[in-house]
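User: I'll paste a sequence; please echo it back and then give the predicted structure.

Assistant: Echoing your sequence first, then the prediction.
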Amino acid sequence: MICCWMESLYKYSPWITVCLVYFMTSYSCLRFSLIPYKYFTEVSKFLFPKHPRNTSLGSKMANVKTIGHRGCVEEDNLVENTISAFKHAIQNQCDMIEFDLQLTKDRKIVVFHDETFDRLCGKKGKLNECLFKDLPQLIIPDCLKNQKFSEQEMKERFFIPTFEELLAIVPMHVSLIVEFKENTPELIDQAHELIRKSGKLRTNTVLWYGLSKNTNKLVREYDPSIPTMSSVKEILLTFLYYQIGLLPFIPLNYQSILIFSERIDIEKVSLKLNSHFENSQNKKKIILFLIKFLLFVFGNPLSCVPKISEHLRKRGVGVWFLGVHDDDYFDIALKGNATAIFSDYPKWLQKKFKMLEKKGTGLKEVVL
């Protein structure tokens, strides 16, 4: 039956049939270590033209090593994505800070991660349905509730900042990672204008992106000169291309890739999908099935990260590890050939890098 089906497919499209047979053979052999990966790479050379190295990240951002994730998260009792959190990251010598942008109901750009206020403000409601003047105050940690703060300190520590306020405190030598939480041309247009006025475009110290492929498509079309990071789909495709031996020959649209340090936890993935597909359980089931199938076929992605990282950095792509918050994850990033590290704890991260310097070691370099 399978032979008849393949014969019919071959008559319809020999090229699709050859690619399908190649894919099925490669993932089976790679999964059970029947044939070394390098042999598939050799075969791929005859099927696909070799793609040149990607060198548009730029020397400034290629040398980035430490990235303050949302400035910092809870380190020294600071709240993420606040002016105080970003100042903390800058004071602790982060080369780069990452943050999230959204629009309020009256079209003000603010720095905030979540869609709703529940987690960070303890209030109900969505940010994009709220006027800027009505934005709630962030939750004050219990250990600080009896402490007195000046009006300026309160604003910097416990209020949602505007993008303009953030740009005003970032030195020119510190690079920015702008993550768009909305897929709207208006947000991208306003953000680009503010970045241009800040002078960051002239110094090539801005990278922008969205985790959705549609957002990345928008920003790449809007200003191709600004580097982007991989979307979730691009991350998954990169791992897939590696497993079937095609990665060296596939064009890459991104200039840095985000690698998640944690192993894939199906229960956590399931909970995350619940929030995204509340009205479509069928989609959730299909995605979960595909993830489980890929994990069975290829094993956990972290096992192949070092080889993928080595290949990508030689193509001029930054390999940036997210979720590095303790010694174990720091070791995973080192073994994974990371070129830079995201952390919620900039002060802790600087101590780790000073220890590496004493040992005479460090992260890998992006090859430009």
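The chain has a mean pLDDT of 84. Residues 172 and 296 are 46 Å apart (CA to CA).
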